[in-house]
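Appendix B: complex inputs.
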Amino acid sequence: MNSKEVNSQNILAIKGLKTYYPISRGIVKAVDDVTLAVSKSEFLGLVGESGSGKSTLGLSILRLIPPPGRIVEGSILFDGSDIIQISNAQMRRLRGRKISMVFQDPMTSLDPLMKVGDHIVETVRWHENITKSEAVARAKKALDLVGIGSERFQDYPHQFSGGMRQRVMIALAICLNSSLIIADEPTTALDVIVQGRVLDLLSDLREKYGLTLMLITHDLAAVIERCDNVAVMYAGQLVEHGTRRQIGMDPLHPYTQGLLKSTPNIRVVSSKSSFIGGTSPDMTNPPRGCRFHPRCAFAKDTCRREVPVLTNQNDGRTVRCFLYT
Amino acid sequence: MNEFVKVVSLKKYFPVQKGALERLASRTRDYVRAVDGVTFTIEKGRVMTLAGESGSGKTTTGKMILRLVEPTEGHVFLGGTDVASMKGETLRKYRRRMQMIFQDPYASLDPRQKIGDAVSEPLRVHGISNSSERRQLAIQMLQKVGLTPPDDFFNLYPRNMSGGQRQRVAIARAIILHPDLVVADEPVSMIDVSLRASILELMLKLKAEFDLTYLFVTHDLAVAKEISDTVAIMYMGEIVEIASKEELYTKPTHPYTICLLSAVPVPDPDNVSHRIVPKGEISSVVHPPPGCRFNPRCPFAQAVCNEKHPDLQEMREGHSVACFFPQENNGLIDP
Amino acid sequence: MRMVLTLPTILILLTLVFLITHVMPGDPVRSIAGMYAGEKNILELRHALGLVDDKGNPIPLYIQFVNYVVKVFQGDLGNSLIWGKQPVMLEVRHYLPATIELTIWGFLVSIAIGLSVGVLSAYKRGTVIDHSLRIYGIVAYALFIPWIGMLCQMVFSVKLHLLPVAGRIDPGVYIDRITGMYVLDSILTGNWVGFYSAIRHLILPSLILGIMLSGVFSRLSRNSMLEVLSQDFITAIRARGLPERVVLKHAFKNAFIPILTMMGLEFAMLLTGAMLTETTFSWPGMGSFLIDRIAYRDYNSLQGSVVIFAIMISVVSLIVDVVYAFIDPRIRF
Amino acid sequence: MTLEFSRLFSRVLPKGQGRGLVIAGSAIVGFIVFLAIFAPFLTAYDPTHPAGLSMVPPSADHPMGTNTLGFDLYSRMLYGGRTILIVVLFSTFLSMICGMPLGLLSGYLGGVVDRSLSVVMDSIYVFPGLILAIAMAAVLGPGITNAAVAIAIVYIPTYFRMIRGHTLSIKEQRYIEAVRSIGAKTRTILFGHILPNILPTLIVIFSLNVADAILTEAGLSFFGLSVPAPTPDWGYDLRAGQPFLPSGSWWLITFPGLMIILLAIGFSLLGDGLNEMTSP
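Resulting structure:
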């Protein structure tokens, strides 16, 4: 699959996106010039460590950046129209109906005072003009689909385990047949077996309904295992974007290489993972030039002075590094 | 066999909090069996890992060994002395021989204490040397954990440091007393992936230098693989399988271990996972199922599993499993 | 659950009241009766206070205490020491409805103003509106009721003659007593002249009491709303495209729980305020009763009214707990 | 504590949310404290002796007028500030000294001690403060010490609850467990780690509590249960002016009340501002 190609298949095309947060000490450039596309029924893994801006990117797509943070530049084409330009009311019609989001902590993402079924009914009825009983039927169907069972319609969130609550969140995301689901660390708070099952559920839903998923996570292994394409972010910028095979077998960017080597593989017992020297970037004061240069083994003078741009490679992937220009 | 650390049938039951009316209605107290009879040994200078999901009792076990949680029952022998029966001042003094590294480096350092004071505090608490010597020792220790130049770090507050640096401070603080045993509770789970190996490497370096013994507590089998000599898998307060690292990762035999290992994602696009998924969700820890605690979820369970409780039995040298139908040659891992 | 604590709370407050009046330094009897009272009067007084038995022998302190508690639970608060020596309970029945009427109206005003100010303030966090509303909250709470009450009396009653200066009802207007709460009674009896008069007398005291307490509610509800608005599920609701009024509805329901759990304390503040309001506006309620009797060193009335306040607080706490359990599905009895 | 204060000021005052509140609060409080301290230099009149005709409206000679006995109201306001500040500060210190250690121990030790102390404290806490103070002051009789004690008892539970709650939450923090794990004594944990982390909150509570205690003192004084007359006291003067309200002697009530609420607002602003600074 060709990842960078911008074509009519693309459901989402982000171009030159910049999202900044002003704080007392300056400006945090949480997302700084990201260009990325997702095509229909694709599973895109967006990988990054703390401070990489991956969550901010996800919230930017829904225009849910908490003030005073805001999108300062760029475009986000969704189904052909730029959602940065549309009105708030139009944006609300998109949220939950066309683009849905699943959050990291399932324990706090549901209103504790509302029955889980009513969460779905409320959402469905706001977006579609249907009767209460139709909405209830829809909610029950969605609960069945995610493997919770419609009989738990009347239960409150606290009666569910973390994994089950994440299923409720997924039911909420799919109940209106959203064309794009953004999942921000949906399994981080869950145990490993439950993680696998939640991801299995998302794969099933793709088989059945052609779901498109942007999976935001810090877990490179999970993304290589589950996604078609992988985008890697570092310090607010996209550094590499390619297929799972390209990223998992032969990463180009030194950061991707380092991250892959840092990710342990339990199938190879004798191997030892390594680490990238230095410390995580300080986002209020990111390094000049290439943001990765202080930790990079291949850093040259150019890297310290100039900012590399994303370039297309012959094999279809994009990389932001002077080694490949 | 060298049994430097010996834990014998350690138990921790927490009473269940109930509503007022419930308490009136029933006289009996319910207990969460957080840890229910855990036995193992660690040889001097080795790294033993307790691995399991949340609620398996792994952290409680680690804390009971350090007496940060009072055991309900059982013994912990450290170099032949029973730590579990120690009291008051004896225990407090003995604490210098066993130390802990905590999970969250953002929470485990006092926000109002300077780094240098935090590292030298254990010496002060145990009345070791005078204050200028303590400062010297602390600076040496900061150097050893890679916080250089140490004089700069000495006067910083935790809020001025990154997670990785804080965890190094926590390690320095734990090691400065030259303890015999160090319990490390998920020491890298809050650290960025690209920095994890550096912390693990540091821990191993210090182990060699100070002749330490580690009990490593984690939910992450991939991380456990990086540092352990022996790995014990816990489920609902019990150890279900214990083996050397090589054995456990290549020849897991307990169905739960197999499920757990097969669920761990592998960063290799060519890897084909045969995922074995247990049924349902974890059972109630207040009213555990009869027989084997894993039987309601086990893909290989038979009638006997619901009737009798399997004890941990040695299959071969250094590999024990608590299962009536251990699954060998399960084809999970290609040799 | 707090429910179980209602009984101990009353007991502890009884003990406190007992300690205050029996163990504090000084001889209350001497100070009540005056330096030159005859021995016979003193003995009578000691008996009335439960300090000596029928024969005049001193009763040990702990037995005094037990007698006192038993009597309170039988509904006997002793007899007043002055003016016909009526049972305190009888007097309470006369004064209590006025206090309840005032606090209910004051409470409604404070909830209406306080919650809207707090919610708006939290929703507009950091804006000029927020800052001004927060200053309102601080100032409203610091408004010393007698002062603002007197200023209002001066402006609205003395100067503008819009509202009565004080009291509960105009002279010459009678309302048949059913509950003792004039507004309710006048409606029940269809007495519209009485109703008009009662409402006019209520306006200033209840507004002033309500505004003072709205300072507390606005602060509480702002903090509580801010806390809820920062939670993930609020972002999740927005991410589902639901409009802001639905977001606010969810936020408010959740924010209301901590406000509700503190209602016992809020009620105590309300009573404190009511006490000052009553004395400022000559409102014949428990507060005025207490202050009047203190002037005459009527210890039994003092003790009795404090006990009544304690019981009121406990009853309110109990009601709050029951309501709380109904609203929050996470709470079970 | 002064160290803590100056650290707070230097760290957050240049910017941040609570800055305006703290500045406004300090200005008001500072102004009234100044008036109280330098009262003898600011007025020539004795607040407890007639200084002229009675019931004189504000004039150049008597900027706030005189009362029924011909006392100069301006001098009574200045000296009255002394009374209320002394009673309130004395009483809040007293409640802090009793409430804080109890809260610290109760929160740290837990168990039966904690449960019984909490029940007792909670019961007093939910009781209307002014009514409790009135009952006690009525039995104790008027006087600065008695008023202070009556108010102090009302606020002990405030400190107890706040400090206990804070101790509980800090006790659950990992760093306390970490300190315990290195073998530190209870004393070290309580005074070396828990107390320093409570101090900023304590300052906030103190400030807010003073604001509340001012209103309680004013209430006691209004009912004539604080210091005995003719000692100048704002609440008492306010009450004394009430009968002359219909005759239009507005100055008798305006100034005492204004002083009370100014001082209360000052401490509230200060406390709120500090609160904002310490909990970002």
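Chain A is about 30% helix and 25% strand.
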